[in-house]
Design brief:
With 165 residues, the protein is mostly beta strands. It is built from one helix and 16 strands. The strands form three sheets. Strands 1-2-3-4-5-6-7-8 form an eight-stranded antiparallel barrel. Strands 9-16-14-11 form a four-stranded antiparallel β-sheet, with no helix packed on it. The chain has a four-stranded antiparallel β-sheet with strand order 13-12-10-15, with no helix packed on it.
Amino acid sequence: MKYTVIQEEERIDVSITRTGEQYGCQFDLQQLDIQLIAQNGNEWIVDLGQGPERMVVAQIGERTEIFVRKQRVVATVYDTRKLALRMMDFAGGNEVVSPMTGRVVSVAVESGNTVEKGDVVVIVEAMKMENPMKAPRSGVVSEVCVNVGDVVDVNAVLIKLEDEA
């Protein structure tokens, strides 16, 4: 599983693999192996390579707090796909771009249609999930750049917008 962790405004990409009770965590280029010994709700007994120790994980909305070795670590953890979709809400400009590689399963607009900011204009399927692509602003669709069934890459232009006349 891939996640993006934002801690104190620093972005860290994390990849987690699991084999039984052994977790492998890669933080950018650092590898951390965690052996899960026991778990009771949000309290875990883990071995980080120096013997068993207690770790408490508290999930508060999207924020995760971890208490380990008498330290408190606070971070916001995002599924990489959800972060890409969330970042679309802050986008502007004249294009709707795909934040992920996937297959176009629906195109809801045609050239000449008027759209409002936040209207779903295209749906891209990635990892068996349908992801709505929204208009970053209000305007008129000047060009539809994809068709149903097309495979698109990250940052592929899906729809172009122009100002209303």
